[in-house]
Design brief:
Structural class of chain A: alpha/beta
Radius of gyration of chain A: 19 Å
Radius of gyration of chain B: 21 Å
Strand content of chain A: 15-25%
Order of helices and strands of chain B: HHHHHHHHHHHHHH
Number of strands of chain B: 0
Helix content of chain B: over 70%
Strand order of the largest sheet of chain A: 8-9-10-5-11-12
Number of helices of chain A: 10
Shape of chain A: globular
Distance between the termini of chain A: 33 Å
Number of strands of chain A: 12
Number of helices of chain B: 14
Shape of chain B: globular
Oligomer: heterodimer
Chain lengths: 272, 335
């Protein structure tokens, strides 16, 4: 096993950096139900890290813990070498962790461009009064942020719909707009909750390509949830496998594929 | 120009002016409802509270004078100075922002995620609480509010006679429009344009629209819901202040001022609870509608006083045939 602070180079020539986020012994309960049971894993800089598992395994709960939507009862979250105190989701976002949602949470009433621009909110620093007066600094800031937003819109090939209200878009494009909004924040960690759920084969291929391109082009660290094994194995550098709230496997796709517990969880084995 | 037509046009114009005032009150409702889903029953009382605070500061009244005198046996009433209108308005804005913060901090922060009916009940409680505080702070006697005359910041007094003369020369009939109504319309127009620009082009405005659209998504892009809610309540407080000034100047600052909230209800039914342009258009339609109805049908055929119920009848018709209002988001039930 590699040391936490080390970097290494993958077979396809990408450099994977030191650990940026570490979950230590996380336990999350809802009333009497344990959604996550004592799970630890880490995410390295620049890698694509997948969390997989059957339905109800606690994957989404895990993502919600990372993004601050759930507060675990036990365990520690370490981010960029320091223990993260209990935080509100918007504070987590301000720390550079962006996310998408399983059921798409876009601003339906706004255009695509406006949606992507909301992703830039954490980068806008001018105060409320200069903003309200709309002068100088605020104007320059708006223009600079607009450029970033447009670049991401180009990158994800949604220029054609940039002025369209999101509510009129088909499902697959909505997913892509949501990715664009998260990317606009230029996050140091990007969380994708089932980015390919409900897509057809073609849309899945597109989305996979975008995820790889984003990682390659911007060097963005990505943690994603997926229950389609095939897709995950092709995309990710390392995989955490969850089942019934427990971690049953962790390693490269190759290692995980040969893990007996993982095979059992997926193919189903009679439990005594 | 035939006399009857000229009268009708005059009534129409006066209706538009009255509509502007309804629209101002409705605007405060829309702001809060859009961003937080709270139907703020206390909006009318906020207008009353703002107007009383403004008058109190203007006249150099000591807040809570009765209370202080009762406890310490003193006999203070006023500071003995009067404050310039402009400064007094600024101070009142500060008070309204403080109120917004307090409302968020002590009431709605503890009610996040509750049923709409519970939030609504909380605003009813807030309305009575605020009415009591206003009474305790500034006393309950009727006060006159005069922002314009003393400082001469408003339109020259000759404005309405100018309109009267000009229209008389043009049409052979002089229209009478109240000075205050003209001021109210101009202020309302500036206010609405300002609000729309703020929402459309600033960072806070964008965050506000984000929160209005989807709370979860807004959190995920780093927007603090708490901050936005304080902002929205402050804006609603500011709108309440403007409405309070206009209504207060028209009919004096008294406790019945809080009842203008009830007139805003039919406006909201028409315009939709979530649309700023809807609040404006709805206000104008109600204003013009009730004045014209009274003039053309009510007074000659129904014995008059139709203004009291016309707005509610119109709202009822809308509820039956177009429940989302003219501009509201369409209600679609997905199965």
């Amino acid at each position: 096993m590699k040391d936490q602070a080390d970097s290494y180079v993958t077979e396809d020539g990408r450099t994977i950096g030191p650990v940026v986020m570490e979950m230590k012994n996380i336990t999350l309960r809802f009333g009497g139900v344990e959604a996550i049971k004592d799970i630890s894993f880490d995410i390295r800089e620049g890698e694509i890290r997948a969390i997989i598992g059957p339905n109800g395994a606690g994957k989404s709960s895990m993502l919600n813990v990372i993004s601050g939507f759930y507060v675990p009862q036990e365990g520690e979250v370490w981010y960029k070498g320091a223990r993260r105190p209990s935080m509100k989701p918007f504070e987590v976002a301000q720390q550079g962790i962006a996310r998408t949602f399983q059921n798409i949470a876009l601003f339906e009433g706004m255009s695509v461009l406006d949606n992507v621009m909301t992703g830039r909110l954490t980068h806008m620093k001018t105060g409320i009064f200069s903003q309200a007066l709309w002068k100088g600094a605020a104007e320059r800031e708006e223009i600079a942020n607009r450029e970033v937003a447009e670049r991401i819109i180009d990158f994800l090939e949604i220029q054609a719909i940039r002025k369209t209200p999101v509510s009129r878009l088909p499902y697959g494009l909505k997913k892509r707009v949501e990715l664009a909004r998260a990317l606009a924040a230029e996050p140091s960690l990007l969380l994708l909750d089932e980015p390919m759920a409900g897509m057809n084969v073609e849309e899945k291929e597109d989305m996979s390509r975008f995820i790889l391109d984003v990682n390659d082009e911007f060097g963005t660290t990505i943690a994603l949830i997926e229950h389609d094994m095939g897709v995950v194995m092709d995309l990710s550098d390392r995989v955490v496998v969850m089942d019934y709230g427990k971690k049953i496997g962790d390693g490269t796709p190759q290692e995980v594929r040969n893990n007996k517990e993982v095979i059992d969880a997926y193919l189903g084995v009679a439990h005594e | 120009m035939p006399e009857q037509l000229a009268y009708t046009i005059e009534v129409f114009l006066n209706g538009l002016m009255a509509g502007v005032l309804y629209a101002l009150v409705a605007l405060g409702f829309v702001l809060i409802y859009k961003a937080s889903g709270i139907f703020n029953y206390a909006q009318g009382v906020m207008a009353l509270f703002a107007a009383m605070t403004l008058v109190g500061i203007q006249n150099g009244q000591v807040p809570f004078a009765h209370l202080i005198n009762a406890i310490f046996g003193t006999d203070v009433h006023g500071f003995g100075w009067s404050v310039h209108s402009f400064v007094a308005i600024l101070l009142t804005v500060v008070v309204m922002i403080g109120l917004a913060w307090a409302v968020q901090r002590f009431v709605f922060r503890h009610l996040v995620g509750q049923e709409p009916i519970i939030l609504f009940m909380a605003t009813i409680g807030l309305a009575y609480f605020l009415e009591g505080v206003a009474d305790l702070m500034w006393g309950s006697e009727l006060k006159s509010l005069d922002v314009c005359a003393a400082q001469g910041v408003c339109l020259p007094q000759g404005m309405n006679s100018w309109i009267d003369e000009t229209t008389f020369n043009l049409f052979g009939y002089g229209f009478f429009i109240d000075n205050l109504d003209i001021v109210a319309s101009i202020v309302a127009a500036i206010l609405v344009i300002g609000l729309v620009m703020f929402a459309q082009y600033t960072k806070q405005g964008r965050a506000m629209r984000a929160v209005a659209d989807d709370h979860q998504a807004a959190l995920s892009v780093g927007v603090s819901l708490n901050f936005i809610w304080i902002l929205v309540w402050s804006l609603a407080g500011f709108v309440a202040l403007v409405a309070g000034i206009m209504w207060g100047a028209k009919s004096g600052v008294q406790f019945s001022l809080s009842l203008i909230a009830l007139k805003a209800l039919p406006v909201l039914m028409l315009g939709g609870f979530t649309s700023i342009p809807g609040a404006i258009v709805g206000g104008l339609i109600i204003g013009v509608g009730e004045k014209l109805f009274e003039f053309l049908i009510g007074a000659p055929f129904l014995g008059g006083a139709t203004e009291n119920w016309f707005a509610y009848m119109l709202a009822l018709l809308f509820l039956v045939f177009r429940p989302q209002g003219l501009f509201g988001e369409r209600i679609i039930e997905r199965v």
